Amino acid sequence: MRQFSKYAFPVFLSIVILASCKKEYETIDVIDDRSVQEYIQQNKLNVQQYESSGIYYQVVSPGTGPVVEYSDMVPAIITTRTLDGKYLSIDTFSVSNRYYNYLGYFNPEAIRVGVKEVLKKSNGTIRMIIPSRLAFGRNGSGDIPGNASIDMTVRILDVSKLADYEDFTIKKYLQTNSLTGFTKTSSGLYYKIAQPGTGSPITADSTIVANYTGKLLNGVVFDRAAPGSEATFALKNLVQGWIQAIPLIKQGGSIRLLVPSSLAYGMQGSSPTIPAFSTLDFEINVTDVKP
Fold this sequence. Notes:
Blueprint: H1 2-24, H2 28-42, E1 48-49, E2 56-61, E3 73-82, E4 88-89, E5 98-102, H3 109-119, E6 124-130, E7 150-156, H4 162-176, E8 183-184, E9 190-195, E10 207-216, E11 221-225, E12 231-234, H5 240-245, E13 254-259, E14 280-290
Antiparallel strand pairs: 1-2, 2-6, 3-4, 3-5, 3-7, 6-7, 8-9, 9-13, 10-11, 10-12, 10-14, 13-14
């Protein structure tokens, strides 16, 4: 009996400790659900749960365009933040904020479901609160850390109205930056001639020598050739925005262009520097024209 008592207490103590540890351990589901509920309450969000999936959503603006299918190529503008506020990515013309690909490839799956089954149509916006287990999981994605629940707003554009969207964006850019004196062409290009130039005329078949700066509408420079380090181009090999606008000046001339994506790098952009369907801002000085 004494021998039994000698070992019984340590065994009992071990059981109590293990039981206590098990009780204190919380699954990622529990942690996710608590953080999501706290976030919703703190921010007074008017959201509802989608079929008990753990995803909460709000249709910010109902879609008015065509019904979207998983097999459709969709242009999307995305805002993403983690619920703890440590990560925020808004529509700043960065690669992480622009998407153009099949809806069925859009990650995570929660976004695909929200767009296809809740928003349903293009030209609309949906906001989703997504628990980490349904977002990017324990590994995270890029700058989004692991086990991070996210607040994501996705705007699905109507491809057929993209030109109108880009024109609106350019006009807003002009107004925000107090830019005046630009002329719009029938193709949607905006240009302003700073110096018309007095040298050789330029045609679509010309080879030009130029210094220039190319930037996104968020101010990020994606390409440049500084004075003294001019670049030489066959004009016909460049984007349509340049082909249309550069012949408006002569050798020695300077021009600024706001080029919609349809006259630049299109729906796909030019990864990793130019996001999908990006309008570009160029300042160009042509120093020489070669036959």
